[in-house]
Amino acid sequence: GGPTISIFQKPPGVIQLGGSTTICCSCQRDNGHVVLYKNGHQLHTLELNGSSAEFSISNATQQDAGAYSCHYLDGDAVLARSDTLEILVQEFHLPEPVLSVLPGHEVAAGADVVFRCTIAHPKAGCLLYLEGQVKSFPFLSKEQDYSLFHVRKGDEGRYSCQCFTRDVLFKWSAVSKTLDLVVR
User: Where is the Ig-like domain (predicted)?
Assistant: First the structure.
């Protein structure tokens, strides 16, 4: 097959109004161009650097929210299109959650791991993120943990969580400090 291109946000999660993030487009090629699109409109073109191109958003406003995707071009030919990455920009009204992992951040392959996102709010739900992935893990209510069974090398990475409430409007927390999971 031809090349594929993936898109992800670093750090993942809803961006704080006035905050910053980086949109990463990653391809298995090391030459050519990456074009960043937002809501179907071309925004920026970058040369591939290594196998990735990074687009920064700083001092984020509502205008930065939208559906982003990357196209990989060689000359004028589009060789690959990424999935769509939804970027949200919100004010943060909730306390920062704390992410913990049991039995610990270093585990043997095949072990079961439990992630817990703790926040000082009675009705908040939380999302668990893994850096480099477009999608978050399933939604967690306050009393739920997220379990990974029989972990393998592919589950390694930098995890974080972010919480929200669904009153009249969504209210968001900051993203937790990251936690690196290492699988031996």
Answer: 3-86
Strand bridging mode 157-166 / 179-183: antiparallel
Cα angle 11-83-37, degrees, rounded to a multiple of 5:
80
Q: Give the chain's domain count.
A: 2
Is residue 178 a contact partner of residue 11, using CB atoms and an 8 Å limit? yes
Kind of pairing, strands 41-47 and 33-38?
antiparallel
Q: Which of 74, 90, 106 is the last residue of a domain?
A: 90
Which amino acid appears at position 91 of this protein?
E
Task: Answer yes or no: are the C-beta atoms of 25 and 34 closer than 8 Å.
Answer: yes
pLDDT at 14 over 80: yes
Which residues on neighbouring strands pair with residue 161, listed in sequence order? 128
Indicate which CATH number applies to the domain containing 23. Answer: 2.60.40.10
Mean pLDDT of the region 145-156: 92
pTM of the shown model: 0.87
In this prediction, residues 42-65 reach a mean pLDDT of: 92
**Domain residue limits at 157:** 92-183
